[in-house]
Amino acid sequence: xxxxxxxxxxxxxxxxxxxxxxxxxxxxxxxxxxxxxxxxxxxxxxxxxxxxxxxxxxxxxxxxxxxxxxxxxxxxxxxxxxxxxxxxxxxxxxxxxxxxxxxxxxxxxxxxxxxxxxxxxxxxxxxxxxxxxxxxxxxxxxxxxxxxxxxxxxxxxxxxxxxxxxxxxxxxxxxxxxxxxxxxxxxxxxxxxxxxxxxxxxxxxxxxxxxxxxxxxxxxxxxxxxxxxxxxxxxxxxxxxxxxxxxxxxxxxxxxxxxxxxxxxxxxxxxxxxxxxxxxxxxxxxxxxxxxxxxxxxxxxxxxxxxxxxxxxx
Length: 314
Known about the structure:
By secondary structure, the protein is mainly α.
């Protein structure tokens, strides 16, 4: 999965040749910060910068952030900017199908967030419920979208924004629709949407794949979804082995009927819609061709033929 990340810098009145940037992380000392500023050609006299910071009582008031300066900015203005915390926002794209772990790694790579605090909150059931989610964690509810995030923003600011974005997409009408198609609640709808997100590459196939899973759920058949197995593995595999399918876990949909206990990723809008508006077909099986599309079958016999055909073509 390719993850694209862009940094947004306001350059309306700036030129690349005259502007320089620096990232100040939490806990960095005045000496470390001064060294960064000097190396980035933001200040010319490190000694006088440290002196000014100390005599003005601002030695320990510099805030973490991503700052952009004109090369001709004075020491006084540089210091004022750093203690004011007027950081440039970072444009971060959370891709559809990202897991909590991937989202944390993504944010940590581009923003100076408190990753431990972030993980603590998203798995805190009390905090999760306060955000209106009846689930053990926020897996599936950190909506995939492009966000402008201050470089050193707090998890308490980032997480609610992502959940609010989810609720801007998943409307009360969708909650009612979930019940009409045989899903108990919003949680089940998001779980199914997350499975569709991970299984479908081609957008046009999402409603068909959804239809297959709805039929299997109603028929009390195992979902036999590879994506739920991948979710419990330490690292994603190109191909699952027979032993992988025997892993004892409630997420193993080869061993346990029905939906897994939680979503397995953050589904996008189209996957949510597919989960709630499945295409009605007679298909009960599908196998990946290897090019992003699938072959759908009505019977197990036909499915086994298609699986053998795909395997022989590899």
